[in-house]
């Protein structure tokens, strides 16, 4: 396993890697003060756009800008082609897995995935048993987090199959780069990402119920303006040219979902919902939820509306289930996984737990249902007290954790206070699975750990974002 970070521009040497030649020349030609001015311009543009997020539980819970770095991350055409093959394969397997566990359960009967890992999962929804969503597509929108460790090796860090976020930043990052550096973008022959809303709209239309008209009515369901990703909800509704709705804007009659309009009720055929399962329908899930739509699940099970993503997809986000993805791909597709998992120790298994407890100082320990970089131990960067706290947690509830080697995420040149310096990055490409085909725009959200030496790229913990350039040449 790699211990020294692979630099995507120099590969840990003096020679510039393919694809980065123009970026290296640009950085050499541009003085620090000019870069600093452009960085400030980028920040001003983002403030004008109003692209912000909230950190839940923060004492200073005001809206913040996610820091943006003006040095793009470059991926060659060949690298991207290999990535897309692996991404398409993985999401096909995820959809097959979800369809199976809510119906025949063949993978459980075969002893591939332990039944308690599925049926006791907090995101498993018994309400979905024996039901297939319209067109049998469970994960129309997936965000697959990828890390790179050397010139040829990409790993999947985690799967996001519930309500993956961040695509608005991918699109706005490109818009800002085109405004600030139009010549650099043109010279570099960067593949466009601007068609993502069109691809998303085509995907959502393709999963509409059979009873829907040829031009189905689509809405984006948001919890409202206090949600941390509300900007993205409004952004996507605008780009798609569809209505942004809250639960109070909808009602169900005769198992059909309607939107209240000034011209009277209008039937909704597809909801791109950015609302967690628990809050969708107070008649089925949390009765105290005022965010959802009473009767929505009845309409869904009657086949009168499609939800993107389907209810119950959170099982596939579980980090213990993630550890079985090579077997899941093999079981459903009869293929070996193109994109590998990070080697993972399942703490629920006594032998693995014993190893983890003996090597906590070397490992990364994660909660199986955790996200956002929270509830995590990075052994080599933690003090003894923190390590002992996690040791107690592991002994008390081993089923709640997995552990992985501490990988050296690849680095990219990043403009920081001291100048251009390497910082660790990951990548979230967005995979759109329709009833007709899989669509993947060439790019994704590159997240960057702005703190020197940090491996945590999450915006809620000091991370930023970069534009991701997939080159056409």
UniProtKB/TrEMBL annotation:
It comes from Pseudoxanthobacter soli DSM 19599. Gene3D superfamilies: 3.30.1490.270, 3.40.50.11290. This is Uncharacterized conserved protein, circularly permuted ATPgrasp superfamily. Residues 72-449 form the Circularly permuted ATP-grasp type domain. PANTHER family: BLR5612 PROTEIN, SLL1039 PROTEIN. It comes from the Bacteria. SUPFAM superfamilies: Glutathione synthetase ATP-binding domain-like (SSF56059).
């Amino acid at each position: 396993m790699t211990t020294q970070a692979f630099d995507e521009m120099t590969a840990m040497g003096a020679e510039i890697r393919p694809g980065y030649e123009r970026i290296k020349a640009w950085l050499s030609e541009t003085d620090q003060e000019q870069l600093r001015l452009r960085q400030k311009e980028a920040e001003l543009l983002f403030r004008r756009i109003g692209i912000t997020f909230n950190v839940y539980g923060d004492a200073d819970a005001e809206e913040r800008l996610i820091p943006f770095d003006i040095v793009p991350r470059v991926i060659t055409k060949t690298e991207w082609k290999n990535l897309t093959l692996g991404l398409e394969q993985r999401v096909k397997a995820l959809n097959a897995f979800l369809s199976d566990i809510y119906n025949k359960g063949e993978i459980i009967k075969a002893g591939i995935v332990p039944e308690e890992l599925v049926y006791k999962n907090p995101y498993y929804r018994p309400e979905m048993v024996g039901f297939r969503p319209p067109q049998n597509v469970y994960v129309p929108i997936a965000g697959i987090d990828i890390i790179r460790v050397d010139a040829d090796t990409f790993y999947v860090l985690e799967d996001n199959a519930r309500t993956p976020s961040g695509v608005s930043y991918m699109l706005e990052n490109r818009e800002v780069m085109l405004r600030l550096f139009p010549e650099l973008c043109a010279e570099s022959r960067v593949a466009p990402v601007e068609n993502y809303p069109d691809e998303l709209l085509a995907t959502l239309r393709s999963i509409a119920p059979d009873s829907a008209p040829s031009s189905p009515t689509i809405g984006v369901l948001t919890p409202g303006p206090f949600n941390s990703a509300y900007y993205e909800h409004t952004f996507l509704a605008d780009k798609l040219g569809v209505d942004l709705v809250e639960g109070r804007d909808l009602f169900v009659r005769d198992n059909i979902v309607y939107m209240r309009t000034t011209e009277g009720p209008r039937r909704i055929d597809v909801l791109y919902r950015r609302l967690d399962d628990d809050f969708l329908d107070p008649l089925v899930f949390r009765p105290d939820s005022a965010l959802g739509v009473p009767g929505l699940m009845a309409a869904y099970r009657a086949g009168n509306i499609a939800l993107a993503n389907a209810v119950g997809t959170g099982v596939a986000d579980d980090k213990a289930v993630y550890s079985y993805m090579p077997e899941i791909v093999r079981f459903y597709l009869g293929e070996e996984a193109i994109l590998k998992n990070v080697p993972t120790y399942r703490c629920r298994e006594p032998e693995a737990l014993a190893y983890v407890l003996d090597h906590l100082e070397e490992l990364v320990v994660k909660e199986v249902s955790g996200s956002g970089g929270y509830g995590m131990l990075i052994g080599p960067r933690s003090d003894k007290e923190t390590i002992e706290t996690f040791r107690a947690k592991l002994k008390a509830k081993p089923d709640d954790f997995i552990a992985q080697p501490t990988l050296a995420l690849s680095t990219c040149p990043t403009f920081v206070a001291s100048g251009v310096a390497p910082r660790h990055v990951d990548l979230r490409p967005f995979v759109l699975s329709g009833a007709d085909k899989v669509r993947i725009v060439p790019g994704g959200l590159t997240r960057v750990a702005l703190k020197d030496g940090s491996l945590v790229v999450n915006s809620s913990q000091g991370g930023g974002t970069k534009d991701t350039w997939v080159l056409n040449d």
